[in-house]
Amino acid sequence: MDEQPRISDAEWEIMKVIWEKSPATAADVIHALRDNKTWKDNTIKTLLSRLLQKGILTYEQVNRVYYYSPVLTEEECKRQERQSFLQRVYGGALKPMLVHFLKEEKLSSQEIDELKKILSEKEK
């Protein structure tokens, strides 16, 4: 597994905006999060800077404006996060995690059918 730096919960919020609006300026991110977050503008700029340092974001400067773009796709980040979680919590073993979730969570008939279909396809 390629070891990418972990993304914090706050950084995930920034990345969701970047994935949706890329390339995006800091002002674009601030505007997109204004209704949902009480973060100050400098907080968002700090989070953007951290994501740049981690290599998750890149930027292009046009005049005095920075346009941020993701280095990794959302799916690549989710995959890394899943692998990290699986390793940290279940020692990398998939079966105990699946069993735990299946026993603990309520599933609709439709969800159960979808899971059966996925398992059937995996079996082939």
UniProtKB/TrEMBL annotation:
The keyword Hydrolase does not apply. GO terms for molecular function: DNA binding. InterPro entries: BlaI_family, WH-like_DNA-bd_sf, WH_DNA-bd_sf. Keywords: DNA-binding, Transcription, Transcription regulation. One of its GO terms (biological process) is negative regulation of DNA-templated transcription. The keyword Transcription applies. Transmembrane segments: none annotated. It holds the Pfam family Penicillinase_R. Belongs to the BlaI transcriptional regulatory family. This is Putative penicillinase repressor.
